[in-house]
Amino acid sequence: MRILILGGDGYLGWPTALRFSARGHEVTVVDNFARRRWHNEQSTGSLTPISGLADRVDAWREVSGKEIQSFVGGVEDGEFLDRVVADTSPEAVIHYGQQASAPFSMISRRHAVETQHANVIGNLNLLWSIREHVPNCHLIKLGTMGEYGTPNIDIEEGYIEIDHKGRKDTLPVPKLPGSLYHCSKVHDSTNIHFACRHWGLRATDLNQGVVYGVETEETVQDERLLTRFDYDELFGTALNRFCVQAMIGHPLTVYGRGGQTRGYLNIRDTLQCVELAASNPADLGEMRVYNQFTEQFSVKELAELVQKAGAEVGREVEIKSFPNPRVELEEHYYNATHSKLLDLGLQPHHLGEELVRSMLGKIDQYKDRVIQRAIMPKTSWSTGELHGQFAERVQSTREPQGAPVA
Amino acid sequence: MRILILGGDGYLGWPTALRFSARGHEVTVVDNFARRRWHNEQSTGSLTPISGLADRVDAWREVSGKEIQSFVGGVEDGEFLDRVVADTSPEAVIHYGQQASAPFSMISRRHAVETQHANVIGNLNLLWSIREHVPNCHLIKLGTMGEYGTPNIDIEEGYIEIDHKGRKDTLPVPKLPGSLYHCSKVHDSTNIHFACRHWGLRATDLNQGVVYGVETEETVQDERLLTRFDYDELFGTALNRFCVQAMIGHPLTVYGRGGQTRGYLNIRDTLQCVELAASNPADLGEMRVYNQFTEQFSVKELAELVQKAGAEVGREVEIKSFPNPRVELEEHYYNATHSKLLDLGLQPHHLGEELVRSMLGKIDQYKDRVIQRAIMPKTSWSTGELHGQFAERVQSTREPQGAPVA
Hints:
By secondary structure, the first copy, chain A, is α/β, with parallel strands linked by helices.
């Protein structure tokens, strides 16, 4: 299959490129290195030492004898993207080419605008290019479970049957995104749904949970093939951050009471899910939505797991509660359906102490590279008290950290 | 009250500015004349001869003795908007400053991107400026009934209680927008809802139906105060277009079978609704949604009404079915709740033959200005056959007009 991977230099994009190339597909990656630039701006960086894209591609050729084609540019540049799509004529596009950090989108107006511009306009450009050049192409778009927020009802996979005043319809699940980044992904879903309904495109929206893990089958084959691993406030995700904190003797930074429950999955399962989506394409005119995670955990449960695994490798790990910079419920109902990928054949790698221990071991190898300053949260997502209709949904237990706006 | 009107040079923005100024409020308008520029690009224009903004402001001063302050610039320019908000310190912002044409957004990638960029980024800039400078300010945002599409259940005002697997929650109404313009308004709603829930801002989202009418209490006071009146394919709305067609002897251009049912309201009622929203502000933290229309009509019903009113002023009006350039159901269930503005005291101006006759009379006065070329639809919204899960929702009865993509 001819596969175009947007954001192919990133944490998930690069291992995905390797996976499809290893399976014999014709892989092209596109990246504008925005993620590397954002880290430069924050003076943070990947825990793992990562090669430049050209070096990665060279290393993969050496290791596997296979060629990955690459283009440097951004999806926000519609003409660039259009040329790439026309030239490569992909049968599947896997779109990771977005600003993917929630706290980044909340730093300032500039960061919020950069996030929504890159994500919404980039995705919109892609929809037009697919429509124009490869209308049968399967768009595999990375969404996020964070689009749904934490409603008081079960979270279905994209659509919900609503019975209202004696009539019924199956409609998109209502969304309660928790950051301007999450909002941007809801916007993307709305645009993609439109393009499928009105232009007859085909898409799979993978509403992914929080990904953890360092290695995949392919990245372990050569150190130059390593993918990035972030643990900083902006780009690090809960479990990855905790593992790094455990290894450098920093208390695990649990926000508030730690009852925030989300879906999680291993990076190896991300690759499995994307492969399953690609080999079972959506129908023309269909926007299929899969909830892509394997297990639900509260932040407190994760912290305790890391503490236990830490003890077994001789680390005394402290868990400490920090004021929550996010506006979110710390105790809430959470039950999200996630059966469709299992139905397609997903074999989950479950999270256990053994897996955490192996992550800790990998991190130990690079722990001298940890930038301490990046560990603590600095971005406050709200600066005022909340009132009105939705206050009970978002009541925070803390004092605002920033300057009050009211 | 200090009131800032974004898009204050437009069809609704200018009469709104006059209304609030007439009532003794301190009014500032902002516009970048994008609407005039888009008409220039299409070689179309307002049926009514409209003055430049500075001339309008002068005329209003002469007529009323009142001052309207104006700034020239676009909401997409975050720094400009931020200075205006800081300088004027508004108690209410009425946001009409958007690209508001559905067919415009479907012409090409450039038009789609311009629409979503102007609307989404402009609105996002505004949310940050309000948060930063006037967190108690009431945002009155013009949305559209078109955000909802035509679901098979009743359309509630913004929120719906969902009973699902034994649990309940009140959540945003799921949306099925019918163009990339309508998508942009859904994105705005998502961002505003976020800002209310997380930052404690207050907003009223007015999901407006299709507006018709030429005159308001203030615009009739002097010809230089006239608002624009569009009848072209891109910016003209159904009834306004039909009235112009009737007066120039062009058949009324009904798309397909004409069963498309939507909510409509008189321009005078738009002003009433916006006034009612401003004098009854939302609570802090609340995003209130009102469905802003007074009556539902099918396109066919409107055409017949114009035909009848035409006959009474001695015009023989032909109704003709044209291939539908839009992807929409031509027969569908439609029942939208719209009681909240009535509860606040809205006194609707109902649509009847008399009102249509008075519109026809006004149009007659300017009928030499009609640009014939602008009457027929040119933008096809889809270029392929539709398949899959949602095909039944959007099945069109016609052959595609543009080049097929598949």
